[in-house]
Amino acid sequence: MLSKLFHSYTKRKILLILIVIFSCINIALLTILSARFWARIPVEIEWLKQGYYNPETFSTPELIEESVLENSTTYQLRYVFLGMFIVLQTSFSICILISVISLYLLFSNKSNAEFLFNSLISLFGFIFAVTFFLIALKPVEAKRTAIFELNGTESYYKDMLASISYTEGWIVLFSSFFSLVISVIAKKSYGYVTNDFILKKAFREDILKS
């Protein structure tokens, strides 16, 4: 049964299946990263609120709140992150759809799906670029002024909250590049189909001409 399914365009079919798998994994990884990003914002804001704010400069709670939000790097990048997250999730979903349609055409022996590969390759190139910017715009460490007392003397120092982990983003970046490469390889992997309408039409025309 499997030998019949993979009797032609074997490499192309296998690579397309890999693209579907990697795209699904990348969607899951981006979802995990998104959950961590949004969970980070309230934690970062609360941490900044616990810092020291000079009463002469920050005389009201509103001024302190404004300063906290300005210094929360994750909060400041929330719309940028959301936009790129939506774009990436949508792009990966389209890649899965294109790959599934290609696999259907190949397994049904109706077409080699050649016309879909340019779109697939362009999409993965686009995904790689967007993921690169997503990582480049990673929120930096949040900073606050803290105070501590030693022998009755108050001292001030700069405290820093470690930046959020973007491990999933790096995995998606390398995975999207790998998917781009295997898309190109899949496009260059040839075989034959027996139910292709265009090929049948061309074959009939050749017979009539002869």
From TrEMBL:
Q: Does the keyword Transmembrane helix apply?
A: yes
**Keyword Membrane annotated:** yes
Q: What UniProt keywords are attached to this protein's entry?
A: Membrane, Transmembrane, Transmembrane helix
Transmembrane region(s): 14-39, 79-106, 115-137, 169-186
PROSITE patterns per the UniProt record, alphabetical: PROKAR_LIPOPROTEIN
Q: What is this protein called?
A: Uncharacterized protein
